[in-house]
Amino acid sequence: MRRSCWTHLPAVALWIGFVIWFLTRVSAWPNRVPLQIGWVGTVTDWGSPWLAFGIVAGLGFFFIGLTVLLDELWARQETRKRFNALSLLDEFVLSLMVGIQSSLLVAATNEPSFYRISWGMIALTVGGAVLLGVLAELKRPFRASAVRPVVDDNHSTEAFRKHLIERVKGGETVVFWDVQNPRYVAWLSIGVPLVLWASSGFLIRESVWPAIMNGVIGLLLLFYYGGQRTRVNRAGITIRYGLTGIRIFCCRFDEIADIRIRSFAPLAEFGGYGIRARRGTTAYFLAGGEGVQLNLLNRRSALIGSSNPERLASAIEVVGGVSFVSDSEVTF
Asked: How wide is the angle at C-alpha 126 spanned by C-alphas 122 and 128, nearest 5°?
């Protein structure tokens, strides 16, 4: 791993501390504790203290693992040191869960008629954990990752470009598709909706609106299935997402000043994957760190992620007659 694991010590220490604190006070917990309370302090859901412990410990462990993964991706894409706000995800979420549930557990020992969450204790817990996370992020060592040059390894792009030129000169209708559909998209668009719909079945007996919300979110994620599809034809460039092909970007060739192939760091430069906007550029990508940048006239530049940016750039250049700027011509 390129990322130093000690930067996650604040979250890990908080998780271990909560586990030890709960287990050493097992005899003090009542048979049932509040799992959810309303705005006025009345309990809307009860459960075993072990269930409350399992939720905090299980979700806390999950968020620690998720943050380690995101930090590792960040470190592998980082060419210069930048503050990684994603590294604070585990400290923030875990401290918030620990603060809220600990407050309810302590209150349950007195069996009050209504409950008040100790926001002062929660603010202290969250603030302390996040502050330690910030210090760890500032002190972490840095190793620059080399940006892999965008090259055509098998020299097939030139043959592909010549073939396109022949077809265009012959008056044929040319349509080029570039697809980004990584495996995680299938899990996100199928697995997560199934979990959300299953949870809706349990929630609907207690609370209708959260159940409906879970069902709607699951349905929206389902339409994400299929990933990102970029089409190049004589009419221009179109990017569509998902099962129904929702159009998210479209431009004519006469709107493009020039194009170039570029490498980028998804997390460090844009903070994630999907549709991202930063510094005059809107990026569309689901995987990888290479794409084709369109410098548009009177519009924000567009960066289209691609697993084969050389072919995508050739299709745009040949079909649309757009100027291609090579790396040697790019000035910074």
From this structure: 115
Which amino acid makes up residue 143? R
Mapped onto helix, strand or coil, the DSSP state of residue 31 is: coil
13 vs 105: CA distance, rounded Å: 20
Identity at 200, one-letter amino acid code? S
Using DSSP, state whether 278 is helix, strand or coil.
Answer: strand
Specify the amino acid at residue 265: A
Check: CB of residue 104 under 8 Å from CB of residue 53.
no
- Residue 237 lies in domain: 156-181+226-329
Kindly report the backbone phi and psi dihedral angles of residue 259, in degrees, each rounded to the nearest multiple of 5, phi listed first.
-130, 160
Q: Is there a domain that residue 116 lies in?
A: yes
pLDDT mean for each 10 residues of the chain (332 residues): 77 93 88 73 76 88 87 74 82 89 81 71 88 88 60 66 87 88 82 81 69 82 84 93 87 92 86 86 91 91 92 91 68 36
- For residue 306 the two structure tokens come to 């691609």
8 DSSP assignment: G
In a domain, residue 195? The reply is no
Q: Indicate whether 163 and 256 sit together in one domain.
A: yes
How many domains is the chain built from? 2
